[in-house]
Amino acid sequence: MSAKIIDGKAIAATIRGEIKAEVEAMKAQYNKVPGLAAVLVGERRDSQTYVRMKKRACAEVGITSFGYDLPGDTSQEDLLEVVRELNANPDVHGILVQLPLPDHIDEEEILGAISLEKDVDGFHPLNIGRLSMKRRDPLFVPCTPKGCIELLDRTGVEIEGKRAVVLGRSNIVGLPVAMLLLHRNATLTICHSRTKDLPSVVREADILVAAVGRPEMVRGDWVKPGVVVIDVGVNAVDDPTREKGYRLVGDVAFDEVKEVAAAITPVPGGVGPMTIAMLLRNTLDSAKRALGME
Ligand code: NDP
Q1: Looking at ligand 1, which atom is closest to the CA of residue 267?
Q2: Beta strands 187-191 and 35-41: pairing type?
Q3: Rounded CA gap, 202 and 229, in Å?
Q4: CA 275 centroid distance within chain
Q5: In the Cβ-directed half-sphere of 263, how many Cα atoms lie within 13 Å?
Q6: Which of 223, 158, 163, 289 is nearest to 3 (CA)?
Q7: How far, in Å, CA of 177 to CA of 168, rounded?
Q8: Of these residues, 7, 118, 119, 121, which one is catalytic?
Q9: Residue 226 Rama label (left phi>0; alpha psi -120 to 50; beta)
Q10: Catalytic residue among 54, 118, 146, 258
């Protein structure tokens, strides 16, 4: 039997619609709209694309975006000054510093300088620390991990009591998604590059989240029948039949695993669209908090 395909594109569109309605209601009641500042340092093409996509998504739901495109040789102090200005600007409810930053910048210091109340990416050390502790709610949860849980919730997947296996332990995806699953009372295993006999660990999963960045690593015979698979991986593989010469695949061999799984996210069109939707949601929540609406 073929798995249910979890349509992240459609779910993200629904969420953006919900956010747009809430922004309109905020404007009607308070004459205010949420504001998101995106700070870009340097000229990385992929980062420019991500920031452009985020600004476009803001415009679509009525969130004001503030863009800061700084040269690649911006000093630590100048970048800190921009963050401080944004911290003080009452029209800015979310500050997003696009990662990765150039090598000469101390990323941890910059992320730590963002006001806790405006840390919509959820990477402030205090927010991450709270996420890692029991009964300490972070003000914001990182967007991609939050999007993974939202996909499970909106697909009606019960998390409590399930065996969850997370592949990857990065600060951006693997670790925070694991913490979120733990908070939701899953029994958790985190795997990484030193894990022995990965297929046998993966086979225990009722819920599998793959975030390793290895094209189609998880094969059909690695998974248990009925597993729910969230594939975070985005990998470009050569494909001469495509105009661009490549196509995107996940960390999971979709065609094989969908024959065994109960539900699975595609790549593209699964987790990807959720990340920006969650950024908009975090920005809206921040503005609501600033207005005392929560
Ligand atoms: P990182 O490279 O930071 O982390 C990869 C993790 O996978 C590490 O923990 C690493 O282990 C582990 N790993 C690598 N190879 C193996 C292996 N052979 N077996 C088991 N574990 C392995 O990647 P990210 O977390 O930043 O991203 C993961 C994927 O998710 C990428 O494809 C990325 O493009 C995608 N992504 C997608 C997003 C979206 O919006 N859809 C957003 C962010 C990322 P170790 O710790 O031991 O090195």
Answers
A1: 41
A2: unpaired
A3: 11
A4: 4
A5: 17
A6: 223
A7: 10
A8: 121
A9: left
A10: 54
What pLDDT digit, counting tens, does each position of 14-67 carry?
999 999 999 999 999 999 999 999 999 999 999 999 999 999 999 999 999 999
Structural domains of the chain, with CATH: 31-115 (3.40.50.10860), 143-272 (3.40.50.720)
Task: Give the pairing of strands 4-5 and 263-264.
Answer: parallel
Nearest-CA residue for ligand 1 atom 3 is 170
**Hey, what are 202's tokens?**
């993966």
Contact 186, 160 (CB under 8 A): yes
- Helix (H) / strand (E) containing 131: helix 125-131
SS3 38: strand
> Which tokens go with 286?
């921040």
> What contacts 57, CB < 8 A, 6 or more positions away?
16, 276, 277, 279, 280
Contacts of 84 (CB under 8 A, 6+ apart): 113
Which amino acid is residue 202, in one-letter code?
V
Choose the residue to mutate in 194, 198, 200, 212 for probing ligand 1, maximizing ligand atoms within 8 Å of C-beta.
212
Per-residue pLDDT reduced to its tens digit, 133-183? 988 999 999 999 999 999 999 999 999 999 999 999 999 999 999 999 999
Full-model pTM? 0.96
Please choose from 173, 265, 267, 280 the residue to mutate so as to test ligand 1's pocket, defined by most ligand atoms within 8 A of CB: 173
Query: How many CB atoms are located within 10 Å of the residue 71 CB?
Result: 10
Q: Which residue has the tokens 């029209």?
A: 91
Contact present, 206 and 224 (Cβ < 8 Å): yes
Q: Retrieve residue 42's tokens.
A: 């340097």
